Amino acid sequence: MQQIKCPKCGEVFQVDESGYAQIVKQVHDREFDAEVARRLREMEEKKAGELRLTLTEKEKEKADALAAKQEALAQKEMELERLRSQLARAQAEQQLAVTRAVSDTERKLTEKQGEISRLNDQLQLKASEMALNEKTLREQYETRLKDKEEQIEYYKDFKARQSTKMVGESLEQHCLTQFNSMRMMSFPNAYFEKDNDARTGSKGDFIFRESQDGVEFISIMFEMKNEMDETATKHKNEDFFKELDKDRREKGCEYAVLVSLLEADNELYNNGIVDVSYRYPKMFVVRPQFFLPIISLLRNAALNSLDYQKQLLTLRNRQLDLTHFEENINTFKTGFARNYELASRKFQDAIDDIDKTIKALEKTKADLLSSERNLRLANDKAQDLTIKKLTKDAPSVKAMFERLKEEGEN
Description:
The protein is an alpha/beta fold. The protein is built from 11 helices and 8 strands.
């Protein structure tokens, strides 16, 4: 027999072993533990079943809603794990309390009953909170799903009422509106305009450029492609790669981005940003919801290399200065050589003219010397001329001169 004192009235009463065992059983009931474990398993199985059902029924268009649901379920799993840990700690504490209750029944029994009651209250509170959270998440998911379906129906109706040209223009206008909504906050100094230059025979849709300190560090050629669901000929994204790469190179852009709604069922293009640089250099394909993220991604990557671009530009300018210096030297050398050649030719012509003049003067000199010699001979002959020589063969003239001489002497 065991004696037990009532903590309220102070009355002492005896209980047999069976009664004592029942009291102990109230403290720790294995069936209670089994029931708690069973309910937790049922809850886990129910949650797992709901998750599998959600994953099975959800369509590909509900990817965002699925991600939100999975995150919510992950939070629930974390909450369940936390509750399991609390329950395990509570069970350990409960077992310890039962062990201690054997030696100190009154105090420990009262304390443990209060602890069990508190834990039960907490467990019920947590279960209520989880049920409420689950209901809230389900309602939010259903609301988002309904909004998504309404949006899909709206776009289907919108596309059905548009011509093929209007569909393409609507996508361009959508991207332009998206960019302008973030321009002043994220891209205040950027250039983003329509490509209206068709001199080369083709043009893209938009060109994005941004510079810093006079250095252009990013440039992107954009092409927007869409088509109606009822269009007989369905285009593929790769049908536009070659022309887009041609426009990128002709307009001097570093990157090319195709914003496309084509191939709506292709998982490759539905998973996010697709790098197709294995086909054409620095080319990407994105859905419209990734239009702004691809600009931010490429822009931030380019900003990281801006210092290197500035250094490269400085080196290029130095190289250009050196090239200009060499070109100036070569121009000077070419001009000097040409002037030297002209001067040398003129000098040689002058030398030739001088030689010709010298030859002419030498000829004139020779002629003058010959003339002087003839004059000297003529003078010598004139000096040797006498009356005797003149009248040697003219006797009558000789006689006349002799007669004149005699008269003169007389």
